[in-house]
Write a structure and sequence with these properties.
alpha+beta; Alpha-Beta Plaits; Tumour Suppressor Smad4; 2 domains; 6 helices; 35% strand; elongated
Length: 296
């Protein structure tokens, strides 16, 4: 299928698929750093072999990301679902408690073929879509959408977002069986004095800091402008510290306190956050959190 690409030095119209395995704390907590990194390497290698067997041309692979080229949009979309199933099997072989999502982006357009290098805006757009995806989404651009059969296009959901660059569009595809995924929970953040009382879903990252553009603004000297971000990943809200002074996370009973300095952890069902200043024995927390199912 791809023989004509060998040695080619001109742009070909192709579908670029980029798949990313989010490096979550659960993998490192469950396996340890050395085993987790080995797991990621083996997982991407398995995915590369699966993509090649599905008539894909593997353009790039590293410890957490895979880029594959296809001639047909429908074949690329089918491969995205196959890769997710392959990753799920590999996780089950290692530990039945382990589940990792595969975030996928698909873009159609010109790819500059200079084996073993493949370049161009199409690959960059696929990578950008994979980065924008969350919780195992498969996102397609308009060009891929237009090249799919009408029966497949009817299964896609249009997503839009507005940012500094204006409105952005993408199409989301749900693989067969996705309806059985665990429901998304709601995260409530509130301050003890009542000045903050906000509830969030999993639609986008939740940013905490002194910056007035943050979702949760806290104004004291220990808090950095961009102190932390919370994302919904793999069935949990993941807290990532990005600050200068660190964060302290307590569980609901206050029996355990974890100190993070540019680290990550999953938030439990309830607890407290201390930001930037060592809480000591009596300091009131900056935020209280709770994670609950949405009301029926």
């Amino acid at each position: 299928m791809f023989e004509r690409l060998l040695g080619a030095r001109r742009a070909e119209q192709m579908v670029a698929l980029t798949a990313q395995i989010p490096q979550t704390h659960r993998l490192f907590m469950l396996l340890g750093e050395a085993k987790a990194r080995a797991f990621m390497d083996h997982a991407v290698n398995r995915l590369a072999h699966r993509a090649a067997a599905a008539s894909g041309l593997v353009a790039r692979a590293d410890s957490s990301t895979l880029t594959v080229l296809f001639e047909q949009s429908e074949r690329a979309l089918q491969c995205a679902c196959l890769l997710r199933a392959e990753l799920a099997r590999w996780c089950a072989n290692i530990d039945r408690r382990l589940r990792l999502d595969l975030d996928v982006g698909l873009s159609f357009g010109a790819v500059l073929c200079r084996p073993p290098r493949y370049e161009g805006d199409t690959i960059l757009r696929a990578s950008s879509l994979a980065t924008a995806a969350s919780d195992g989404q498969i996102l397609l651009d308009d060009a891929v959408h237009a090249a799919l059969p009408a029966s497949v296009r009817s299964c896609l959901q249009l997503l839009t977002s507005t940012g500094p660059e204006g409105e952005r569009r993408a199409w989301a595809y749900a693989c067969p069986g996705d309806g059985t995924r665990a429901p998304v929970l709601l995260l409530t953040l509130r301050s003890p004095d009542g000045s903050v009382n906000l509830t969030f879903g999993a639609e986008r990252p939740i940013r905490i800091g002194r910056d007035t553009r943050a979702d949760v603004v806290l104004q004291h000297n220990g808090v950095s402008r961009q102190h932390a971000v919370i994302n919904w990943r793999n069935g949990a809200y993941i807290y990532t510290d990005t600050s200068q002074n660190g964060s302290w996370i307590e569980d609901g009973q206050g029996a355990q306190r974890l100190h993070l300095q540019h680290g990550i952890c999953a938030l439990g069902s309830s607890g407290a956050l201390h930001l930037g200043i060592d809480p000591g024995a009596l300091r009131v927390p900056d935020l209280l959190f709770s994670v609950e199912a949405p009301a029926p």
